[in-house]
Amino acid sequence: MDKFPFIPYAHKRITTKEMESCSTEFLSQMSARRSVRMFDNDPVPKVVIENIILTASSAPSGAHKQPWTFCAVSDMEIKRRIRSAAEEEEKINYGGRMSDSWLQDLAPFETDWEKPFLEVAPWLIVVFKKSYDIDAGGKKLKNYYVNESVGIATGLLLTAIHQAGLACLTHTPSPLNFLEKILQRPKNEKAYLLIPVGLPAKDATVPDLKRKELSEVAIFY
After folding, report:
1. Cα angle at 7 between 58 and 5, to 5 degrees?
2. Which of 149, 154, 130 has its CA nearest to residue 140?
3. CA–CA separation, 199 vs 123, rounded Å?
């Protein structure tokens, strides 16, 4: 296998004070990020979604295989089909497939099987993971650390959505295989997350949650 050519790493050094300022400002911006279920149906330019996806696709991945596909859906009929299929799964989930403890943990969020945001949000981004690739001759090509790689890319996706002034929700109407059928994805792609994206509704509300303190999530050695 041919080796990659190596090029100088373009990096601008900043002062310690600038590091502190940049990291504090970014923390402030991202601390305002919330999962939103109430969207405005105002259109969002396609170029914004393209930039968001390109940002996500800049994520590191095992052996640089980039084992992901981001399907961006704005077509209303496809969104209707996705909502209908998602709600069918959620009816089963809320009707008994989810454990009592799971339902109890969800109760404070006042969620149910109805998912109108899947039609109202101007875009749905469906993240697919590729367990393997397929070359032009039909041969399987192994991918590595797929879940980790796609998880990192999705984190960048959510960050880019927030930085673009938009809101989103990480939605998981398990099982997700209906998305592979509706979007006609190849057999090596499995749905990972369904993410409605758009401007929050003017009257949008979110639960008054508290995030864990640094001492609860970090240990320094």
Report:
1. 90
2. 130
3. 10
Question: What is the Cα Rg of the chain in Å?
Answer: 20
Q: Which residues contact 151 (CB under 8 A, 6 or more apart)?
A: none
| Complete DSSP assignment for 139-194 | -EEE-BSHHHHHHHHHHHHHHHHHHTT-EE--B--SS-HHHHHHTT--TTEEEEEE
Q: What is the pTM of this model?
A: 0.95
CA distance 121 to 140: 36
- Domain locations in the chain? 35-201
pLDDT per residue as tens digits for the range 63-118: 999 999 999 999 999 999 999 999 999 999 898 888 999 899 999 899 999 999 99
C-alpha 95/C-alpha 27 separation (Å) is: 39
β-pairing, 140-142 with 167-168? Answer: unpaired
DSSP SS3 for 77: helix
Total Cβ atoms within 10 A of residue 139: 9
Contact predicate 123/167, CB 8 Å: no
- Domain 35-201 belongs in CATH node 3.40.109.10: yes
Single-letter residue type at 151 = G
